[in-house]
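Table S5 (text form). Sequence records supplied for joint modeling of the three-component complex.
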Amino acid sequence: MEKSQVQISCKNLWKVFGPKGASLVGSPDASLPPADLQEKTGCVVAIRDVSFEVARGEVFVVMGLSGSGKSTLIRSLTRLVDVDAGEIELCQRDVRKADKNQLRDIRRHNVSMVFQQFALFPHRRVVDNVAFGLEIQGVKKADRYRKVDELLQIVGLSGFANSFPSELSGGMQQRVGLARALAVDPEVLLFDEAFSALDPLIRREMQDQVIHLQEQLHKTVVFVSHDLDEALKLGDRIAIMRNGAFVQVGTPEEVVGAPKDGYVAAFTRDVSRSKVLTARWAMQTPKYGNLSSYEDRIVSPTTLLQGVLPVVLASELPVGVVDTNGRLIGELDRRSVLAAINDGPSDAEVNENHLVPAAANWREEVAK
Amino acid sequence: MSIKSSRALRLKRLVRWGGAIAAGTVLLSACGSSSSSTATTAPKPTITLVTNSWEGSLANNVVAQYVIEKDLHYPVKLLDLAEIPAWPATASGSVSAVLEVWGHYNHYQTYVVGNHEVINAGLEGPTGNIGWYIPTYLLKSHPELATWQGVKADWQLFVTPQTAPQGEFLDGAPSYVTNDAALVKTLGINMKVVYAGSEAAQLSQIETAYKAKKPIIFYWYTPQYFNHVYSFSQVTLPPFTQACAKLPAADINCAYPPYYLYKIMNSKLPTTAPSVAKFIQAFNWTAADQNSVSYDMAVNKLSGPAAAAKFVNSHQSLVQSWINGAPTAKKAPVLGT
Amino acid sequence: MTVLAEPNEQVELATMPDLPPDRRTTKTTVSKLAQTRWSGLFIFFLAIVISAIYGGFHSGFPTSLVPNIATWFNSIANWITVHQSTAPFFVHFLTPIGNWLGNSVNALTDVLNWLSWPGVIAVFAGTAVLSGKWRVGIFVVIAMIYFGLIGLWAASMSTLALMSVAVLISVVLGVPLGIAAAASRVVEEAIRPVLDLMQMLPAFAYLVPIVLLFGIGNAGGIIATVIYAIAPVIRLTMLGIHSVPYETVEAGKSFGSNRWQLLRKVQLPMALKPIVLGINQVIMMALSVVVIASMIGTGGLGDPILQALSIVDVGDALVAGVAIVFLAMILDRIVSAVAENVGRNVSSKGQRQLISPRNLRILVGAFVIVAIALGNLVGGGGSFPPGLSLSLSSPVNSFLSFLQSHLYHFSSMPIIGGTSNLSSFTTLEILNPLTRILGDIPWWLAIFGTGVIGYLIAGWRRAVLVCIGVTAIGVLGMWTDASVTLAQVLIALVMCLAIGIPLGICAYWWPTLEKVLRPILDVLQTMPAFVYLIPVVLFFSVGNMAGVTASFVYALAPAVRLTNLGLRQIKVDMIEAGNSFGATRLQMLRKVELPAARSTIILAINQTIMLVLAEVIVAGLVGAGGLGYDVVVGLGRDEFGLGLSAGLAIVVLGIVFDRLTQGRPAGRRG
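The corresponding structure-token record, covering 1375 residues in total, follows.
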């Protein structure tokens, strides 16, 4: 990634909760498995040596079960939680070294957050909730209201400006939360399990809305979630987090198609691979050099395997994969497609991997 | 008026919109200081008289108020106040005078003898007579109860659940210094003192016993208008002597000393309101006079001014002597009162 | 007192068997716990034996351990008396403050007088109506006309002015203090014991120094009222700010709010409800010291009560007492209405209204102006027309003497006899023996015995605190009187719980009963205790039974209310679960509802004890003796030291009881 393209950069972040937590960073105790560590020191490692970069316009999803440290991580980006060690750079500004005023400035202008329980202000009408960030910045009332009008239209809530949050449904409340975050026109948007508290249908609607908005606005997004479908749907890249550390970082295809270990595999095993993996993932070197030999059996590399299947199944002959420039880059046949779709780990494998004390695995990873 | 009204409107608006509360305080204090500064330019200061918790004190005050307002043309305010705070209040001038003081040797030493902030305004007239009393009906069946020896013999009459197996002696309001616990002990009477805790409680208890014609013995005093409503008799105790007064509190074995009720006033009153100071120093009446006014108010339910008017109209020459007469004799309270 | 108790070992022990048996840590915890428990009890036992050898079996606290604290307190008061008019701190600091306070009350009284009586009624009723509370408006009109009809309009206005200023000052000082305490643990820890002290120390105990420092009248009255009443607004502001959801605070922070913006735009508005609750409690507590304030010359509604007492006229006292109750209710309802209107989180859109808000505002404004004009031109200004008056006192008095003649004596009622018999029985058979037993317990046994009890129900730290507290009572020289008071407090507590909890349950079963009880409890709690001094004596004779009865009457309300509240707060599904197994009403109560309401009921016990202790002074006023009488004597006889020592002993008793009864509720988790 080019330097100017990097919007968020974190290096070796550590956060330890508990008595004298900070002193634990870098000590040999830090590599103990969580249960032993808690027994011995009473500490819990929430973020364990995490490093990552997010490019401008990218949607970076942090995935993990509850207690894996993902909420702490997203909060540490704006220092709602202070990490114990590491570097954080946000929009070319050093967050950890920022003094009170600089930090306030970052929070006011560079980044805003959408919360799991919406965290709306119940005593303010919708309009004043959305305008909150602008109000804090000191923008004049007329100006902020003009901006709010615009945003409410975007999230589909015009007409509700004068309602109180308690009068809205959950989905509508989170739209207010989204509008509130967008109102300050931040470069970076943080979503903390933003849609977890919503009904499945509403959740899907909100996800679509985010995708739609992202197409127009191209914000840099960090999205924390425990829902794999959501991660796969929204994420350009996904980080799987466990016990405070990143287990795997990669595109949805990489995570689903090549899980790094049993833990990730167990996570992704129920995903319908044909809906995640693309032709590019399953293709082999083409047998024929020229495009014409594939006749009309051609797919693009980004076609999902579920879209390829009917073509592959229609005949015994291989299918060509052709990029946007019309160049042949690979071919697919029945065997390779079915293998890609069925290549998930077996139940036995998953269970076995799952039961192995994680310590050994992530000690290696930490060492890396 | 116009300034005031605009302020009041502003205040109202504040209330209506639930606005800045603190601003209200500032506003109020501003109003307050302006109104108080106009008050000091008024020619005649308000005379403040202390009303203590007994009815006789109120009787003194309503009559004095009537005369001061009608004949001396000073505004008068009656202030309900406990006995103790009345002393520093008189010293500081927030109170002009107290027309009936019982004893208070210590305060007298501090404020009258000590820093001269309070003046002894002479005797009020009645003599406070503190002692042991019983309802008169008891004497019919038990004539021996007229003396303490009789009480000592008949202690069983006064046994109550509260004090069983001893007899009960009912003590009065907590602000009066009483020797009854010591007396019961030194005179060898098989009784226990119960402190009623308030005069209201004591009176209610006496009334209940009185209505049922039950035996009861209690600490009491004259002048008190209740003596007009009910008939009480005093029990003779060993006579008061100076030697006895000097004994430690727990060893006292004689009757209470007579209390020469007196008046006090702020030391600046003679300069700020000379005619009132003169009136207060001359004010003097009898226990019967006071009781009649108290009775009119408490039992006949006359208002204060009405009871005062009734008394003043029927005692014209007495009232004239207060306005034009000489100050009454002075007598300082003695140790032990 | 909202301290959360620390984890409770006993309950932990009880719930242990529920955990999986194979967990190693569980076993060690249990055995460790058992060990510390036994060794703890052993230490107490040792302490008892050792002090028994030293102290012998004498009752009473050893005089050698009692320093002359009262004399020391007295010398402070004397020093103030001597220097009051000369020391610069008094002359240039306290006196101006006193004057300023006095002036602000006078100014407010002037404003009220200028408004005239129709104007005052219009302003208050109008405020209620503008806040959308028509019913409150109607109540205000009726209650205020009552002030006039009983001839106490002027007295009511002067009390209203005094109380408004006192409440305002409490809020202006209390809210920032609460914010500071919420922001800093250190401040919170420092403030908490001071609040306990201010709330529990009887006002009687510090009236004299206040008069010396600030003078008589409104200034002293305000200071005394603020000291007594400010605690709830501090506590509830703190609580309110703590109870703002953490995520919302984070949301505020994440937009870059600075501390002040966060406080003003997020925390304070969201804590509005608890703060208003705190202000309402301040109002109630302030109104309960109206009569005491009258003793130092504030005038107002306390005066007619004191005067009525001096001529034993219950009717007069009751009529004025009801006025105080009404005043408390007016202020309470108006503050709630305005706050609710300001903090309403529902838009008015969609509600059907007869008049638009704007027109209503104009209408009310016009009404107020007309009322003021009418009052000043026709109605005779500030005072209520004397022609319109109502005499309520004589019917009340005749009703009371009727009651007394029918209830007091031996044959009045079947089986239990009259109240005099009831009183004799309780005094002879329960109160006197209990007082004797408590008085005869050797001091060391009392100290360590309460320590053991404290240890068993609330753990180590509390046990030590309790031991220190009981010792302090002895050191204050209040041992004997405290045992007299303790006996009464215990009996009053038992009576309150024995009657209050069943009443609370009945009110839960029959909502109609609850509706009937609510205003009665309101009145019992706000009616100044001075009003029922006389009736209590009429029925129960001067003595400790009268004291117990007065305390019982005053402290009954929280026992009923909180029991009822605890039961009504139980989640519906829990009750449905119970019913689905076919439980009878009594089974439901015993096995589901009472256990579920346990923590609230324990809170009820805690609050009842606090109120009973607050009423110890009144017990002293009706001949029950003990600490209450000492405090009363302290004021009445200028024995400041005695009064303050006894007052502090009451505070210590309160803290001991509070910490003991708080030990349990936090125990059962989940």
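Note: Residues 401-670 of chain C form a domain with the MetI-like fold fold (CATH 1.10.3720.10).
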